[in-house]
Amino acid sequence: MPPARGDRDARREDVSEAVWRVLAGKGFGGLTLRAVAAEMGVSTGMLMHYFPTKRALVVHALDILERRSAERPRRARPVAGLAALRAVLLDVLPLGADDTARNRIWVSSWDLALADEGLGAQQAERYVRMREALRPHLEAARDGGEIPPDADPARLAAACVAFVHGLVVQALFDPGRFTADEQTRAVDDFVRMLGAVPEN
Asked: Are 51 and 11 in contact (CB under 8 A)?
């Protein structure tokens, strides 16, 4: 018999915490109904009352990851323009243990998104939102004379996302080379270059 509504909501939160612990330890490659059930100390059958398929569990895990990413502590936003853009880019990077764990989980999810059309569309939409979040900072930088007046904020936002996620991947695979200080220097160099790159 399925659990009552109140019990179901409470248990779903327990499941969410177990899913997060599995993700943190094993990434999406290790996320299975069996692994989550073992983390909770329950049967796989009980867990299937909440997530009848592996895909349903993955969708829930992505929702948790997105929520935790949105709720993470952020740097104070300086004045509008490149200083604010710099703060946003630094917030994406694996500069500390929590940020590294979250980025490892995100990167491990990409393989699933590439193999599943629905998950891929959701990931593409996340990138749209990320670019749109960066665009106002670039518009302010253009209006404030920090970047060329003919700069296209939409194109630069796409370049910013490509840069910062490329840096994330390098830092995850080569943390000895891409230390927190080195990542910060790379962001500073990139932001400075934005002020000198002419639009074609």
From this structure: no
5-49 per-position pLDDT tens digit = 556 667 777 888 888 888 888 888 888 899 999 999 999 988 888
The DSSP result for 50-68, as a single string, is T-SSHHHHHHHHHHHHHHH
Helix ranges (DSSP H) in the chain: 5-26, 33-40, 44-47, 54-71, 82-92, 97-115, 117-143, 153-173, 180-194
Q: In this structure, what are the phi and psi dihedrals at residue 7, rounded to the nearest 5 degrees?
A: -65, -35
Longest distance between any two alpha carbons in the chain, whole Å: 65
Residue 155 CA: distances (Å) to CA of 75, 94, 161, 190? 25, 24, 10, 15
CA distance 169 to 125: 20
Q: Would you state the torsion angle of the CA atoms of residues 78, 79, 81, 83, taken in this order, to the nearest 10 degrees?
A: -30
Query: Sign of the C-alpha dihedral, residues 38, 42, 46, 50?
Result: negative
DSSP state of 75: P
Whole-angstrom Cα distance, residue 9 to residue 1? Answer: 16
The C-alpha atoms of residue 145 and residue 158 are separated, in whole angstroms, by: 20
